[in-house]
Each structure stands twice: as C-alpha cells, then as structure tokens.
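Data deposition worksheet. Section B asks for the primary sequence of the deposited chain exactly as it was used as input, without tags or linkers unless they were present during the calculation. Section C holds the resulting structure in token form. Section D is free text for depositor observations; keep each observation to a single sentence. Incomplete worksheets are returned to the depositor.
Section A, Depositor: J.P.
Section B:
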Amino acid sequence: MNDHQLRQDVLDELDFEPSVHADHIAVGVHHGVVTLTGFVSSYGEKLAAEQAVRRVKGVKAIAEEVEVRLPSDRKLADSEIAERAVDILKWSVGGVPANRIAVKVEKGIVTLTGEVDWRYQANEAGAAVHKLHGVALVINQIRVESPAGVFEVREKIQQALRRNAELDASQITVHTDGGKVVLGGKVHAWFERGIAERAAWSAPGVTDVQDNIQVGP
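Section C:
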C-alpha cells in the first residue's frame, strides 16, 4: 500500500468514526507514519481519533499533534474539574481504588498519581477522567505496584497471546525481568501490536511494558 492510498483509508476511517468530527483534522502520511494535526473539542475526541487511525491496516506509527480547543461556554474552573474527577473515580466501575489516587488540575490539564495493583485500574482511572467536560489533557502517572507472590508472568502472557484469534503468537517474543516485560517480534497491523501490549499489561505483577514489536508486511 502506498502513502496516498493509506492517507485516504485513514481519512475514510476518521469520517466513519461517529465520535470524531474529522473536518478539523488534517492527515499526512510518509512511509506508513501517519501525522494528525488540527483541533478537536474534547480530549475524548482526540483519543477516539487516534484509536480510529490505529485500526487502519498499513499504519506503522502515529505522530499525534491534534490540539484540544474547548468552547468558551464549556470551560470550567480547575477546582470544579478536580471535584468532578474525584467524584467520578469514586463511582467508577472496574474496581478503581480511588483512595489511592491523587488528582491535580492546572489549566484544564489533569495529572493522576498514586499506586494501584493492576494496570487496568490505572487505565480505567484515566479513561473515566478524560470524559469530563473541561479536561484538555490527562497525564496518567499512576504506578502499578507489583502484588506479592507473582510468578510465571512470562508464561501467562504467552498463553494469553496464543488464545487470541487475531494474533500469530509465534511471531511475538516475550522477555521478563521482575515486573518489567519486553515485547519483540513482528506483526502485520498496528492493532495487533496493541492487542499484544494489552495482553502483557493484563498479566498479574506487570509494572512496565516495553513494546518493541515492529509493524510491517
């Protein structure tokens, strides 16, 4: 696939995604690397645009330069955003331990810190907060604290990869060093890389994932 066709596929996918207003997003492609520029009206829309591009076959990497521009009537005081963020974390599904997460807001930028036992809890916290009105950016600095008694992390990840019908697990390598996981190998599409990374994060005791998987034919 050449860059011209890939660019058209990305534009079509952005137009197809109902949560994205693609009129204000420009797309550039060079050797399979997609650059997004322009602006959107919410942080959630920005993430949705990036996820849409990741679904497109042939995308090797994404340079995300889209800005969040909030309409003046939707701008909220930092204190109000912080209060809403604390509330949504308390009521968030997914077992997020809100009492172990701290929230800081400055000019619409929300920074989350603290420690949780699982990566999905940190992801759930970030996903819940980025939906709030007035949020321009979420900086998720929540750390994963490895639970005691964790073992066979590498085998659990490999089993998860083998169970996935959309992956050829034989093409992916997994190395572990305590709670750190290093992924290598090669896949055919960007979304496959994401599947492998999510599988690694889902294993108990994983505190860091280094994704070195290459995307290509």
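Section D:
The chain is about 35% helix and 30% strand.
The chain has three domains: 3-69, 73-144, 153-215.
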